[in-house]
Amino acid sequence: VLVLFSHTRLLPGNIEAERGLAEALATRPDFAVVEYVEFLDSPRFSGEAYERAFVTYLREKYASHPPEVIIAAADEALDFMLRYRVELFAQVPVVHLAVSSTFWQSVAPLPPDVVGTPLTYDIVGTVEQALRWRPEADRLVVVTGTSSWDMEWEARMRAHVARLPQQLSVEFMAGLPAAELQRRLRDLPANSIVFTPGFFRDGSGREFVPRDASQLVAVASSVPVYGPFATFMGTGIVGGRMASYDAIGRLAAETTIELLGGASPASLTMPAAMPTPLQVDWRQLRRWGISRQALPADAIVHFKEPTLWQAYRRQVLIAGAVMLLQAGLIVALLLERRRRRRTAAALARSEQHVRLAAHAASLSTWVLDG
Questions:
Q1: Helix (H) or strand (E) holding 70
Q2: Average pLDDT for consecutive 10-residue bins of the chain (370 residues)?
Q3: How many Cα atoms are found within 13 Å in the side-chain-facing hemisphere of 56?
Q4: What are residue 114's phi and psi, to 5 degrees?
Q5: What is the rounded (10 degree) CA torsion for 215, 221, 224, 225?
Q6: Residues 36, 3: contact at Cβ < 8 Å?
Q7: Residue 143 in contact with residue 194, Cβ under 8 Å?
Q8: Which of 278, 282, 324 is closest to 303 using CA atoms?
Q9: Which of 99, 129, 133 is nearest to 117 (CA)?
Q10: How many CA atoms lie within 13 A of 25 on its CB side?
């Protein structure tokens, strides 16, 4: 199985998707799947000359070990495979993962042997949820960068914000140097919310991983920040409606296993889209005064601080048992002490009665010490 990722090896989404993919493939040791992973490194590397060099590299590397299934991760990888598959691996089925529904629709209909579940970014749902928590907000600030990927996301955001409430004004902070961006974010008025997909390059040419860029935005912002990727959780954003990359990888693995088992691509039934549940950071809810009761019942809460019982249940049970045992021993000792005192008092009274009787009868008492 050849897995082609669109972006850099260290992109958090790639790491999570590949982990889910590898773990799910490993559940079928009868296939003895050998997984090879390659990276296009978009958008840092692009252009016709680069693509031709990459095609030559793949063709020569896998000439003696051609893949039985190709997995294309995200838009750029699927686009690359659609354009060069005949030249590379003409008859090999392709499974796509984490391909945006926007790109998927732009290339539909796909060849019959190219299958997968598109990924919908619920931008509108995320912003609407943010407005429920902050109903006084009437300004949305969208932060993007200057790379080709960043500009595609800016275009995607512009298409989506047209569906938002008309009273919500939208400002795009696109392509600013990081220092200038942070300054503007610190000065945002309280009636604002921020949405960012992160960016690969800022206005000064400095390169980022989008997750790191989202952290830069969240740390600087004076208002709540939201995003589209589950890998942003923990960077300081409140959250958003997001798909799990681990689940995306596992679904692609299940499809791949069916193809390796002999199923035809046309026989596979694929989900219409990946689920995008609301995911939130508990610490950010507290920071921005969002109550637990305001969360939808199906929300996924990250980083919630456990109660004493949840965190140390075993230790609490052991400590409780020890305390009960100690209390029992103390009660038993007190009862024994009381019994002994009563016995001693009874003996003392008995001896006094004997002495009184002997004295009254003018008798003497003797003690025989054996």
A1: strand 70-73
A2: 95 95 89 92 94 97 95 97 95 96 94 95 95 94 96 94 86 96 97 97 96 97 97 97 96 95 93 94 95 90 72 64 80 81 75 68 57
A3: 6
A4: -115, 110
A5: -40
A6: yes
A7: yes
A8: 282
A9: 99
A10: 23
Residues β-bridged to residue 96: 72, 116
- Distance in angstroms between the alpha carbons of the first and the last residue of the chain: 99
Query: Strand ranges (DSSP E) for 153-294?
Result: 169-174, 192-195, 225-226, 239-241, 278-281
Q: For residues 348 and 271, give the distance between their C-alpha atoms in angstroms, rounded to a whole number.
A: 91
Q: How far is CA 48 from each of CA 51, 52, 55, 84, 103, rounded to the nearest angstrom? A: 5, 6, 10, 12, 20
Quote the crossing angle between the two packed helices 245-260 and 12-25, to the nearest 10°: 40
Which DSSP symbol is given to 159?
Answer: H
DSSP 3-state of 343: helix
Tokens of residue 29, six digits: 């040791």
Q: Give me the amino acid identity at 187.
A: D
**What is the pTM (predicted TM-score) of this model?**
0.79
Distance CA 117, CA 88 (A): 23
Amino acid letter for position 213: A
Distance CA 124, CA 158 (A): 11
Rounded distance, CA 209 to CA 215, Å?
10
Q: Amino acid identity, residue 269?
A: T
* 19 SS3 class: helix
Sign of CA dihedral 228, 231, 235, 236: positive
What are the tokens at 369?
């010490």
